[in-house]
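During the second half of the funding period, the structural biology subgroup turned its attention to how the target accommodates small molecules. The most pressing case was adenosine-5'-triphosphate, which had performed well in the primary screen but for which no bound structure existed. We therefore specified the complex as follows and requested a full 3D prediction, including the ligand pose.
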Amino acid sequence: MVDSLASLPVRFYSLHADAALAFNVKGNNDNEDLHTLKFSSPCSCNGLRPTTKKSDGQFFTFDLLCSINFDKGAFPNLFECRHSTFRQLRASNCNGEELRGMTSVSDERPVTVEIKDLKFTYPGIDGHPPPGAKPLIENFSLTLREGDRCLLVGANGAGKTTLLKILGGKHMVEPDMVRVLGRSAFHDTYLTSSGNLAYLGGEWRRDVAFAGFDVPLQMDIPAQKMIFGLQGVDPKRRDQLIKVLDIDLNWRMHIVSDGQRRRVQICMGLLRPYKVLLLDEITVDLDVLARADLLNFLKEESEQHGATVIYATHIFDGLQSWPTHLAYVANGKLQLAKPIKEIPELKELSLMRTIEKWLRKEIEEQRRIRKERKVQGLPEYDTPVEGSRVAGGDPAKASQLLNNGWAGGRLHSTLAGRDKEQLYDLSSNRVLR
Ligand SMILES: Nc1ncnc2c1ncn2[C@@H]1O[C@H](COP(=O)(O)OP(=O)(O)OP(=O)(O)O)[C@@H](O)[C@H]1O
């Protein structure tokens, strides 16, 4: 049996651009030909050779010597290295000193996001899943650690936004199904109030009395007032974000373009440092440069401060070397969640082509299923289940219920109706916040 390092990259910090390294590897296979090192950043690894071999009867350990030259402009502050075969990997410089800041085996990095057997159905009009409704998300498990950058991909309607909102504590699920930094995302308000968990998504909207919910934010307020109005912000970080997003502090929010408004929104969302950041397609309105600079900023944040970032997007341009992990969702089910280097397709195809290939396969499968259903005389598409527990799941009765403003994600709501000739008022505040 060969120990696989597949998901156990080792992380090293602050090397010189060119370094001579000595590695010590341990595993249960003594085939010297198996020694290859894989690096997360473009570099050449020269002269990898085992110098000593020891065996304790069960494991073999090798000392490996090599020199690394990072490609021009690719020298990272932190890079990951994995041995193709062996589990244990230590690195020292040629004087035998262990590399500074090194974690010897990276699966010791703390888990920041843990999703276990997640099941979720959007609530009906009474705040409960309609009786008989098929869960939108089911059997969904995913674990991410400090410093992971996970790209969340999937077709329109696959459930990406829903998943990010659940992680952001906007929809209630069982406390054990979703843990962020060891806490329940929905029930533990400390996560968002401390700023440790940040959610950035959708358009910047607010609820305005008499005008309704979800009105685009368009007050005549200068960007400076908004950005400098947030208390307790590190001025250095603020200046860096203003520079990265190229914000003109004189912009007035009611006459800015969509992209300019988006830049201010992103800046506000990132002003306070976070440990877990959830991004729902926030770069749509950004121009190529702003997008690239923002992605670099986020990459640096995760590499230097261990932030975990989950980013749902349909735009893969410039993302090839950004994620450490890829999670693919289809119909609310996790199809794949892996470190990027363990996805075989990515060895031959670009990120975009790989995802295109998966989506094409998915749509062909859906077409096949619909065709079969048609042949069997069944409706091609599932009919959405509506109804409520109050009305006993009967859509005819449910239609008698009066929805005076409740919708998913809304706090203020009252449901009024008539049941067995008795008037009742129900609050569905217990469900969402
Ligand atoms: N508040 C809601 N109530 C009921 N169903 C909803 C609600 N919001 C979304 N849905 C449904 O849940 C499914 C998943 O939607 P979601 O927005 O999570 O998908 P997505 O993967 O983010 O899609 P896109 O790529 O288009 O943004 C869709 O079928 C959508 O109609």
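Two results from this model are relevant to the next phase. DSSP finds nine helices and 22 strands in the chain. The pocket of adenosine-5'-triphosphate is lined by residues 122, 136, 154, 156-162, 408 (CB under 6 Å).
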